[in-house]
Amino acid sequence: MPSDTDNYETVVRERRAEKVAEFEEHHRGFMGNVQHALHVTPSLVPLIVLVASLILFGVLLGSRFFSPFALTLILQQVQIVGIVAAAQSLVILTAGIDLSVGAIAVMSSVVMGQFSFRYGIPPAVAVVCGLAFGTAVGALNGWLVARMKLPPFIVTLGMWQIVLAANFLYSANETIRSQDIAAEAPILQAMGAKFEVAGAVFTVGVVFMVCLVMVLAYALKHTAWGRHVYAVGDDPEAAELSGVNVKMTLISVYALAGLICAFAGWALIGRIGSVSPTSGQLLNIESITAVVIGGISLFGGRGSILGTFFGALIVGVFTLGLRLAGADAQWTFLLIGVLIIAAVAVDQWIRKVSA
Amino acid sequence: MTQETQRKPLLTGRNLVKRYGRVTALDHCDFELYPGEILAVIGDNGAGKSTLIKALSGAVIPDEGEVTLDGKTVHFQSPNDAREAGIETVYQTLAMSPALSITDNMFMGRELRKPGFRGKWLRQLDRPAMEKFARDKLNDLGLMTIQNINQAVETLSGGQRQGVAVARAAAFGSKVIILDEPTAALGVKESRRVLELILDVRSRGIPIILISHNMPHVFELADRIHVHRLGQRLCVIDPKNHSMSDAVAYMTGAKVPETELEPA
């Protein structure tokens, strides 16, 4: 049936000599270039904000602020939040959220203290028990998220209440005094040990925080596990189809977050000296704040752990700077709030990048 | 391609049955793929094409029947099993992580580690080797215009993404490559580029299963066309002896194929 209607077939059967799609860079313009740079290096924004705020307070306050002592004081003040925020970053990179980080940290410190003092377990072993406790709770979070497919917000909201209540029940709301710890179990305060380098005061906890950030930055960038964390946060279905073990990646991330929180609990004993079940109540919100200001996307798969570190430092710089300037403490919260909204707005803008 | 009577199929399905509740998606379906050919699978929506393909790529486990690869019966429990056997699938969604680089995406789930201490104990990735491999594979397929192998996949155009996905499949698929609607989301020029990629891959001797709704593309590329209807293989036609309207008529049931038209 060689009718006219069949002609289109002969047309499409012949190879057409169209120009093939060209894959070349087109012009971006200045704002486009800025957007592209931020897209490639997401920790650039918090770094700029950090440097700008350091310069601002340096000009306003002079040597009161720009002294080795004051600058390292910031590090000491942000060490707990910094460590917890590193754990929070891992979870948020997988498009999750962990509201139980603070509770895990406090309960781990209580386990370390009570195991030493109530049961007479050697303090070093008690520390290991505390770390194991944090890892176990984190792994349980991960199991509920990955295997039971429950939303991370709900799982960790529940776990926050459970661990916090268990913390008060188990410790009977008792504080272990600083003098007792120093006398009988000094290893519990090991993270608080101070050393001085030319007027700058560091603690073991601060060194631990910096090392932790470096190790996690390496693991996220240069190991297959780190790439899988990003892939799972970006698009879990795509990651699964590409051969990533999504469930094990999620469980490992939550378990590692739990372990890091337990280390934060150990650092907390060093910072406040005593084991107090009522400490660290705001750690979950403060860690999320640091993560968001640090430019990690709450939708997962974007951002870097260095950004979180800068985010925690920005909060520390604002807190100390405004206090030294004699401003009302509420100004700190107000400015942090502005920074959070600005950071998310920048994140949305970066996401629009297309070339 | 000349049809040899004694050729052995590389990948076959025999009597495949898959039921979802009361719906029978595959109803005693047969399937053959011969070495070095492009076999198109066409069929109406809901005819069971994707179930058939998923049964071959391990994403679905058939209730009955057997799948053989290279003459040996295989039982894929997951897409990973099929990948290990050398069957790579390019999904319609492409299965790529938009925020990660081209290299990261190509090696997702099978990364290379550095030799010695740094790889074994520090688990460090061998980025130079991965980048070189990715660049070579893209060059092989004429995607040289992708300048920066480390740019994020989301900064690529639709055609470039499809190209990277095909390159990934071609790089690792040693036996069979399955392409699910590779041109569905693309414009005319980008489609053309991807069709040329597919022919390039075929010229390396790797057989391809092509699922497509686009009849001109199917008739241009395919050596044989498997027409799927109501969960079964209705017939296999040679695009040289049939018109597109015939194929559509078979597919929709408007016309019944006169004889067993399978050329093999």
Automatic annotation (TrEMBL), chain A:
It holds the Pfam family BPD_transp_2. One of its GO terms (cellular component) is plasma membrane. Coiled coil: none annotated. It is a multi-pass membrane protein. InterPro entries: ABC_transp_permease. It is found in: Cell membrane. The keyword Cell membrane applies. One of its GO terms (molecular function) is transmembrane transporter activity. The keyword Ion transport does not apply. The chain crosses the membrane at residues 44-62, 69-93, 99-117, 124-144, 150-170, 197-220, 251-270, 282-299, 305-324, 331-350. Keywords: Cell membrane, Membrane, Transmembrane, Transmembrane helix. It comes from the Bacteria. This is Mannose ABC transporter membrane protein /fructose ABC transporter membrane protein /ribose ABC transporter membrane protein.
From TrEMBL, chain B:
It comes from the Bacteria. The keyword RNA-binding does not apply. One of its GO terms (molecular function) is ATP hydrolysis activity. SMART domains: AAA. Keywords: ATP-binding, Nucleotide-binding. Coiled coil: none annotated. InterPro entries: AAA+_ATPase (IPR003593), ABC_carbohydrate_import_ATPase (IPR050107), ABC_transporter-like_ATP-bd (IPR003439), P-loop_NTPase (IPR027417). Residues 11-255 form the ABC transporter domain. It holds the Pfam family ABC_tran. CDD domains: ABC_Carb_Monos_I. PANTHER family: CARBOHYDRATE TRANSPORT ATP-BINDING PROTEIN MG119-RELATED (PTHR43790), SUGAR ABC TRANSPORTER ATP-BINDING PROTEIN (PTHR43790:SF8). This is Mannose ABC transporter ATP-binding protein /fructose ABC transporter ATP-binding protein /ribose ABC transporter ATP-binding protein. It comes from Limimaricola pyoseonensis.
